[in-house]
Design a protein that fits this description.
Blueprint: E1 8-9, E2 13-21, E3 25-32, E4 37-44, H1 52-66, E5 76-81, E6 86-91, E7 96-97, H2 98-105, H3 110-129, E8 132-133, E9 142-144, E10 150-152, E11 159-160, H4 181-184, H5 191-207, H6 217-226, H7 232-235, H8 241-250, H9 262-274, E12 283-285, E13 292-294, E14 300-302, H10 318-341, E15 351-353, H11 362-366, E16 375-381, E17 390-394, E18 400-402, E19 406-412, E20 417-419, H12 428-437, E21 441-447, E22 457-461, E23 467-469, E24 473-479, E25 486-488, H13 497-506, E26 510-518, E27 526-529, E28 536-538, E29 542-550, E30 554-560, E31 574-579, E32 582-589, E33 596-602, E34 606-613, E35 619-627, E36 638-639, E37 654-657, E38 660-662, E39 666-671, E40 677-680, E41 686-688, E42 694-697, E43 701-709, E44 712-722
């Protein structure tokens, strides 16, 4: 192994110490001499420089992270892919892995589990939205910082979700304790595989144990495919039921039963955070047959658990058991006959075996008397199957359903026909994007043509205008540098540093000096280039770049209005503000029904939470604001459940002082919850100012004054007007 310690890579990165050794790369702590900051440098080990598969994976990691900019994902600052050394420069994370933390604290509290899981899911949602699947989510690949924030790293086996490339080594990549069943089987994976891994991590955090373990990796992989996990609440009874349900739904063997996106899982976790006693009706249950997973829509999933072997009986009791069995059978038969005789089961439909409709035509199904009682829903979609042929169905056999059960059949409309578009003259990247968005497979060949600029598409085969089925191959012929000594400078602004570097290489240009600068644009984004887009330059010209360091900090000012009229039935209470877990304002004496201004500086995205503290010392969450550091946006407030949130009305009381007035007299209505408006059910008796609650007597009688919060009537009181 080359000793890099003390050396400078490209004269810029001074290697200080080795901090990690991996299967294909070593990680060093280094100093970026240009930016005067500590960074992590991941260097591909020299023995793998000629290994095309590992080089591909290494480049794929830099490409994947280079497309991402999120506070919970490690940042990439620079890359180098020379013949002598290949490395990725990333932000240096001073912390421990989540795995180390779990080992120290196991099991974690459910609050810590939720805190870490939310950050992981937000990172994955950001990656999935950009077409990147991590495929190796595990606590060893998640760094935990002192402030409780996490960073997802190691995208070395990430795959772009549209890619169909697979190799033998891809099939078994990933820590076997956390891989999804589809990964264990070598099937194509998508974003739902990452969510399965998140479910495994939640299980481990909540229980301190892995759901599946064995002495061999093969045995664990088989368990991932076929075994049901033990209920987390059997291991730690204090785990809230709703959180157990979220965990087990994420771990569903069938990807269609699992959460379909990180945002969907986050919504359930958000509902759980608002109400930890919530129950979602996602259940695992076990009978004498296979263990099944049932979600709240009723969809089931077989997990392949075996029946328990029957216990052996003593010989002496065999004859007695046989006589009892015969007697019981006679009694049951008699009851069933009586029930049928009186027509008590007349309306019940028998369970029947679900037929396999895949491969049949709609006409064949509709003309088959055996299927006449089923209720079919037909969904037509493009498919390689002939027109009118069923290519999928839901539910799938083998299983039992009612004679009149509902079945969805997916019927082929035939292959989708697309036309090869006119992409002649486009850059290779632009042309590939257009063709792939049409569902076509692209292959690139080189050609020399003095009539076109470098990296421009000269011709396509089949020609422009040809009609093809989706999935067919189109060859694009791209002009090379051999036809000219000049090239055109491409647009680099708004690309990531990695994208700009590879784009320059494809145009026969070099990346020059890189200067980092504060900017509202995401970190790692090119802000400007030394030579403008469209300029003609000599091949191998260097282009200097200015790259965003992101927003290091931003000042915010938020005013929370409509503070509660009372807290714990008292107008004396405190108010304070917390941002990203740290106090930023107060505690201060509150002005009931008034406002509270908070000025603070943020260095990361987070939540500003306004709390009120009663005289008992108890804290109540009044309002929550989401703060975006890059955009500078602050969301509208969400009121805490004690003060109503637009869905659940708060507990409130209305007080009228005095409760009886003469005609022309005045009184005042107040509500124990801030931000209330008031109405009178009988303005002919008494009127009320909607905002101040000021009441004026009009005529003798009584009127009811009602307080409304967030559009919901929450409390009322009656005033009497005397003549």
């Amino acid at each position: 192994m080359i000793d890099y310690i003390g050396k400078k890579l490209d004269g810029r990165y001074e290697i200080l110490e080795l901090i990690g050794v991996g299967g294909m790369a070593n990680v060093y702590r280094a100093r970026d001499l240009k930016e005067n900051r500590i960074v992590a440098v991941k260097v591909l080990r020299e023995e793998f420089l000629d290994n095309e598969e590992l080089v591909r994976r290494f480049k794929n990691e830099s490409k994947a992270i280079g497309l991402l900019s999120h506070p919970n994902i490690v940042k990439v600052f620079d890359v180098n892919f020379s013949d002598a050394v290949q490395y990725i420069v990333m932000e240096y994370i001073d912390g421990i892995t989540l795995k180390e933390y779990i080992e120290r604290k196991k099991p974690l509290s459910w609050k810590d589990t939720v805190h870490f899981t939310v950050q992981i899911l937000r990172a994955l949602q950001h990656a999935h939205d950009r077409g990147i699947v991590h495929r190796d989510i595990k606590p060893q690949n998640i760094m935990l910082l002192e402030d409780g924030s996490i960073k997802v790293m190691d995208f070395g086996i990430a795959r772009f979700s549209r890619s169909e490339t697979r190799t033998i080594t891809d099939k078994t990549i990933g820590s076997v304790h956390y891989i999804s069943p589809e990964q264990a089987k070598g099937d194509i994976t998508d974003a739902k595989a990452d969510l399965y891994s998140v479910g495994i991590m939640m299980y481990e955090m909540l229980t301190g144990k892995l759901p599946f373990d064995s002495d061999s990796a093969v045995s664990i992989a088989i368990k991932q495919i076929s075994d049901a996990p033990k209920s987390p609440r059997e291991i730690v009874p204090e785990i809230p039921e709703g959180l157990e349900e979220i965990t087990l739904k994420a771990m569903a063997k069938d990807p269609s039963v699992r959460y379909q996106s990180a945002s969907q899982m986050l919504r359930d976790i958000d509902d759980f955070k608002k109400n930890p006693s919530i129950v979602f009706a996602y259940k695992y249950f076990s009978d004498d047959g296979p263990t099944k997973y049932v979600d709240k829509s009723g969809k089931t999933e077989e997990t392949g658990a075996k029946k328990k072997p029957a216990k052996k009986r003593r010989k002496g009791s065999l004859s007695v058991a046989l006589m009892l069995g015969v007697t019981a059978a006679c009694v049951i038969s008699t009851i069933v006959l009586l029930v049928f005789a009186f027509g008590l089961l007349e309306n019940e439909k028998l369970d029947v075996d679900l037929p396999n409709f895949i491969g049949q035509t709609v006409t064949e199904i509709q003309n088959n008397e055996a299927y006449k009682n089923f209720k079919f829903t037909y969904v037509e979609e493009y498919s390689k199957e002939p027109v009118g042929v069923v290519y999928d169905q839901s539910p799938l056999p083998p299983k039992k359903i009612k004679e009149t059960g509902e079945i969805t059949l997916y019927v082929s409309k035939g292959a989708e026909i697309v036309t090869v578009p006119d992409i002649i003259g486009s850059t290779s990247g632009e042309g590939k994007t257009v063709l792939r968005n049409l569902g076509l497979v692209v292959r690139q060949e080189s050609i020399s043509d003095t009539n076109y600029e470098t990296n421009r598409i000269v011709q396509v085969n089949p020609p422009v205008g040809t009609e093809l089925e989706t999935g067919e191959v189109v060859v694009i012929y791209v002009n090379t540098l051999t036809s000219t000594s000049t090239t055109v400078v491409p647009k680099l602004v708004d690309l990531t540093l990695y994208e700009a570097t590879t784009t320059l290489a494809s145009y026969g240009l070099k990346r020059g000096e890189v200067t980092m600068q504060d900017s509202d644009k995401p970190a790692g984004t090119v802000i400007s280039q030394s030579i403008a887009e469209g300029a003609k330059v000599e091949s191998n010209t260097s282009i200097d770049l200015v790259v965003s360091k992101g927003v290091s900090s931003r000042a915010f000012s938020v005013t929370a209005t409509g503070l509660p009229a009372t807290v714990e039935n008292s107008t004396k209470y405190k108010v304070y503000a917390v941002y990203a877990g740290a106090n930023v304002a107060g505690p201060a004496d509150a002005t009931p029904g008034g406002s509270f201004k908070v000025d603070f500086t943020a260095t990361t995205d987070g939540q500003l939470q306004i709390y009120v503290k009663g005289e008992s010392g108890k804290d109540y969450l009044f309002a929550t604001y989401n703060v975006n550091l890059v955009s500078g946006e602050v969301s509208a407030p969400t009121l805490g459940t004690d003060f109503g949130n637009g869905t659940t009305p708060p507990a409130a009381t209305v007080t009228i002082n005095p409760t009886s007035i003469a005609v022309g007299g005045t009184a005042t209505a107040t509500c124990s919850v801030g931000g209330a408006t008031f109405t009178s059910d009988n303005p002919g008796i008494a009127t009320v100012d909607p905002t101040t609650g000021a009441i004026t007597g009009v005529a003798a009688g009584s009127a009811t004054i009602t307080a409304t919060v967030n559009g919901q009537a929450v409390a009322s009181a009656t005033i009497t007007v005397t003549g």
